[in-house]
Amino acid sequence: MMVAVLGGGSFVEVGISTASYFNRMLIEDTVRDIGAHGVPLAELFLNTFSEYDPAFTELLAARLAESGVTAYSVHPMSTQFEPQLFSIHPRQRADAMRLFERVLQAGRRLGARCYVMHGAATLSGAAKNLEIERIAPVFAELSDMAADYGLALALENVSYCVFCSPEYGLLLRERTGDRLHYTLDVKQAVRSGHDPLRYIEAVGDRLVNVHLCDYEKVGEGRFRWLMPGQGACDFAALRQALCAHGYAGPAFLEVYSDMYAGIDDLYACLAFCAAQLEEPTAGGTAR
Fold this sequence. Notes:
The protein is α/β, with parallel strands linked by helices. The chain has helices at 27-36, 54-67, 90-109, 132-148, 166-176, 186-191, 196-203, 235-244, 263-277, and strands at 14-17, 41-46, 70-76, 114-117, 152-156, 181-185, 207-212, 214-219, 222-226, 251-253. Helix 5 (166-176) packs parallel to helix 7.
């Protein structure tokens, strides 16, 4: 299944996640604002159960069409049901599977190429029954189910979930027969104590999505999250590593909404990301 929107191992487009607007605008208004800023590609962060409803999906699809915005990926509020997809309790899992399918249906209707998943949560090591031998087949099953809806299941590296280290990504690849795809989240990599480039080394040829943020170290094991271009992230090295692994997907600005003062600041940052990561035009500059 083709999920990439780009080719040639280099960026031609940087988009924005609606998560960057969290609690500033409702998602249906966010889509309009993204379109008004001339950005054609978005990741849709679905905030809650009512946003998985088919009637809401129709509203959102209409807003995307009128705004000239393409949804590349859908990303539900994972803690609402994704951990229960891996539960040993049959009713917990059955209810979670119904919600998972509802989001897959929404993703297909919205024209998305992938579903961004956090997956099983470790809860700082307190969770039980998360041995890789047990949950790897679950990931494979979920990947196949997503493929039935035309979406790639793109597991994101997250500090409080099972895929928090590059090594786990390698193990999971071995046990799922490369049926999974992956999302690289720069912020979550740093929060997990790893260089983001190590995740690219582990799963780079299966990456279909990238989340962009910046950071600075403020103490032992502590970081402050910043808008791209304001911190320590080496975006040139990031682009080089992705291209070296033949990456052929987009990157999305995904920042916390309390990190910037106004919407103009958000789009100035998006322009910075485009200049760093997009394919240069014939004139030698990115858009």
